[in-house]
Design brief:
GO terms for molecular function: protein-N(PI)-phosphohistidine-sugar phosphotransferase activity. The chain is an all-alpha fold. 73% of the residues lie in helices and 2% in strands. It has two domains: 203 residues, no CATH class; 157 residues, no CATH class.
Length: 442
C-alpha cells in the first residue's frame, strides 16, 4: 500500500509540474480564450443549420409548403448565418486570439488585432474577374484556424519586441492616450506588415499558391492526422483524465491545444454535409463533446443502482440532475473520485471505452459520422446530443450503448467502495451508540 501511495504521489507531482507549465503558458491560454470566444458563433450557426438541414423529410416538406419556396432556396437563406459567422471563422479566431495574447503581453490589444488582420489578408490570395478583385471566402473560414493562430502569435511577439525596445513615435505627455496610442503603434505595425508582405512576395516568387496551402502541408495536415486519429484522441483523453484525477482541470489544459484541431475537422464535415455529401472525419468537436466524454456519467448511475451506504445515497440525490447535463463535479469532488485509488482505473478507462466503442460504430457505418451541422454545447443531455450531432437516432442509441458499457466498468469499483463505506458507517454508528450508552450509565 505504501508503494502504491508513493507511486501516486510521484505521478501527482509530475503531472502537477506539467500542469503548472501548461496552465501558465500565455500562448495556450490565449488560444483557449480565443476559441472560447469563437464558440458562441458556432452554436448560433448550428441552430440555423439544424433547422435548414433537419434530418426529417416531413419537416423539410412542411417548411417548403408554408414558405412557398424551393427547398434549396429557404435552406440557403438560413445558411446565410453560417456564411456570416463560421464562414469567416478563421478571421474571428484571428481577432480573438491576437487580442487575448496582446492583453496577456500587456501591449495595445486593439492595434495588435487590427495589425494581425492586415497581416492575415496579405497572405490571402486575391482573384480578379472582368476587372473586379475579389477574395475567396474559403480562405477566411475555419480551415484557416491554424494559420490564424500562427499569425496572431507572430504579430503579437514582433509587436511586443519593438514596443519593449521603445522604438515608437512618442507624443507629448499632454496628448490623451486615446490619441497617442495609434501613433505609437505605427512603427511596430509597419514592421509586422512588412514581414508578412515580404513573405507574400516569397510565396509568389516560388510558384504562387497560398500560405494556407503551404501551412496545411507543413503543419496543419499532420496536426489533423494526429488529433483526428483514434490513438491520438485516446492519449489526449487519458492525459485529461489523469490531470482531473489529481485535482487539475484537465479539460481546461487540453482544450487550448485540441479545440482548434477538432474545430477544423468539424468544419470540414459541415461543408461536406451542406453540399449533400457524406462526412468522413470521425473525430471532430462533436465527437469529443458528445461521445468521448460519457465515462464519468457511469459513476453516478452505478451509485444509483447499487449504493447502500448513507453517503452514496445522499450523493445520488445531489448529483442526479447535474449529470443529466454532463456536469460531473458533484461526484468528482463529493465522492470524491479524484485522488481516490479505488476509482483510478474506471476514471481513466471508462472514457477510453466510450471513445473506442463510438469510433468502431462510426467506422463500420453503424452510425452516421457527425454531420458538423449541429455543434451543440457539451451540456446538452445524452440522447438529444447524439441525435442532433449525427442527424440519426442511431447516434442516440450509440450513446446509450456507451453509457451501459461505462456503467458496467464502474459497477465493481463502486461496489468495493460502497462496501467499505458501509463498514465505516457501521463502525461509526457503533462508536456513537457506545458513547451514548456510557453517558446513560454515568
Amino acid at each position: 500500500m505504501k508503494n502504491k501511495n508513493s507511486f501516486f504521489d510521484t505521478l501527482s507531482q509530475v503531472l502537477g509540474k506539467v500542469s503548472v507549465k501548461l496552465s501558465g503558458n500565455i500562448y495556450i491560454n490565449a488560444i483557449k480564450d480565443g476559441m472560447l470566444a469563437y464558440m458562441p458563433f458556432a452554436f448560433i450557426a448550428s441552430i440555423f443549420l439544424i433547422i435548414a438541414f433537419f434530418p426529417v423529410p416531413a419537416f423539410t416538406d412542411f417548411i417548403t409548403n408554408i414558405t412557398g419556396l424551393e427547398t434549396a432556396v429557404w435552406q440557403g437563406k438560413l445558411a446565410l448565418v453560417n456564411d456570416a459567422s463560421l464562414g469567416i471563422g478563421g478571421l474571428l479566431v484571428l481577432l480573438s486570439i491576437s487580442r487575448s495574447l496582446a492583453d496577456k503581453l500587456k501591449i495595445n490589444g486593439m492595434q495588435v488585432s487590427l495589425t494581425a488582420v492586415v497581416a492575415f489578408m496579405l497572405l490571402v490570395p486575391f482573384g480578379s474577374q472582368e476587372g473586379l478583385k475579389f477574395i475567396d471566402v474559403t480562405y477566411l473560414g475555419a480551415q484557416t484556424i491554424f494559420l490564424s493562430i500562427l499569425i496572431s502569435i507572430v504579430t503579437a511577439k514582433v509587436y511586443q519586441f519593438i514596443d519593449n525596445k521603445g522604438i515608437k513615435i512618442k507624443m507629448p505627455a499632454a496628448v490623451p492616450p486615446a490619441v497617442s496610442a495609434p501613433f505609437e503603434s505605427i512603427i511596430p505595425s509597419f514592421v509586422v506588415i512588412t514581414i508578412f508582405w515580404v513573405l507574400r512576395l516569397v510565396i509568389d516568387a516560388f510558384g504562387g499558391g497560398s500560405a494556407l496551402a503551404i501551412f496545411n502541408t507543413v503543419l496543419g495536415i499532420p496536426l489533423q492526422a494526429v488529433g483526428g486519429s483514434l490513438p491520438g484522441v485516446i492519449i489526449v483523453k487519458m492525459f485529461s483524465q489523469l490531470l482531473w484525477f489529481f485535482g487539475i482541470h484537465g479539460d481546461s489544459i487540453v482544450n487550448g491545444v485540441m479545440t482548434p484541431i477538432f474545430q477544423v475537422l468539424q468544419d470540414a464535415n459541415k461543408t461536406v454535409s451542406m453540399a449533400g455529401g457524406v462526412p468522413t472525419n470521425i473525430i471532430c468537436q462533436s465527437f469529443w463533446d458528445s461521445f468521448a466524454s460519457i465515462g464519468i456519467i457511469g459513476s453516478i448511475i452505478a451509485i444509483v443502482l447499487i449504493a447502500k451506504s448513507k453517503r452514496y445515497k445522499e450523493m445520488k440525490k445531489i448529483a442526479g440532475v447535474p449529470y443529466i447535463f454532463n456536469v460531473g463535479e458533484p461526484t468528482l469532488f463529493g465522492i470524491p473520485l479524484m485522488m481516490n485509488v479505488i476509482y483510478f482505473i474506471p476514471f481513466i478507462l471508462s472514457n477510453v471505452a466510450s471513445i473506442v466503442i463510438s469510433y468502431i460504430a462510426f467506422a463500420l457505418n453503424l452510425v452516421p459520422v457527425c454531420t458538423g451541422l449541429a455543434q451543440v454545447p457539451w451540456t446538452t443531455p445524452l440522447i438529444i446530443s447524439g441525435y442532433l450531432t449525427t442527424g440519426s437516432i442511431a447516434g442516440s442509441i450509440l450513446q446509450i450503448v456507451c453509457l451501459v458499457a461505462v456503467v458496467l466498468i464502474w459497477l465493481p469499483f463502486v461496489r468495493v467502495a460502497d462496501h467499505q463505506l458501509v463498514k465505516e458507517e457501521a463502525e461509526l454508528e457503533l462508536q456513537y451508540q457506545t458513547k451514548e450508552a456510557d453517558k446513560e450509565v454515568e
